[in-house]
Amino acid sequence: MRVMGLLKADQHSESGAPPSAELMEKMGKFVEEVTKAGIMISSDGLLPSSKGKRIRLAGGKVTVTDGPFTESKELVASYALMQVKSMAEAVEWTTRFLKVLGQGECELRPIFDPSDFPPEVLPPERAAREESTHKQMKKNAKKR
């Protein structure tokens, strides 16, 4: 199963200050380990919300709002996409990640798989197209 881990932002991540060299070294070792274990698919830190935008469509009208999003208590500082055997395995790796950080809070969310949908919602031919699209996305990521 694929699981998305979302690290909640804090004052430090929202300040835009880079992590210390020591933390970067520790994180580098952890990311190398989790990647070699075949768990990590993708992971990146996110710039602070001051660098972002929110796009909203309501009533047919598009609104674009510049960051920072100080009113939000649920900002994300980084993400990790994992391929795991179970949610328990995702919790185990995420706990190890948080121990490397020394503190923090992560949310884990399973990602829909074509097998999660009944055939009347996602017929086999559509599921095959979905799989083809996902393969193309992976190729695109490698090109960029």
Question: Can I get a quick summary?
Answer:
The protein has helices spanning 11-15, 21-36, 87-101, 124-143; strands at residues 2-8, 40-45, 53-58, 61-66, 76-83, 106-110. It is of the alpha+beta class and 144 residues long.
Structural class: alpha+beta
Helix content: 25-40%
Average the pLDDT over all residues and give the rounded result: 92
Strand order of the largest sheet: 2-5-1-6
What sequence of helices (H) and strands (E) makes up the elements? Answer: EHHEEEEHEH
Low-confidence stretches: none
Approximate shape: globular
Structural overview:
- The protein has 144 residues and is of the alpha+beta class.
- The protein folds into two domains: 110 residues, Dimeric alpha+beta barrel (Alpha-Beta Plaits, 2-Layer Sandwich); 28 residues.
- It is 39% helix and 26% strand.
- It is built from four helices and six strands.
- The strands form two sheets. It has a four-stranded antiparallel beta sheet with strand order 2-5-1-6.
- A hairpin with a 2-residue loop joins strand 3 and strand 4.
- The longest helix is centred in the last third of the chain and has 20 residues.
- The chain is globular and about 50 Å long.
- It starts with a strand and ends with a helix.
- The mean pLDDT is 92.
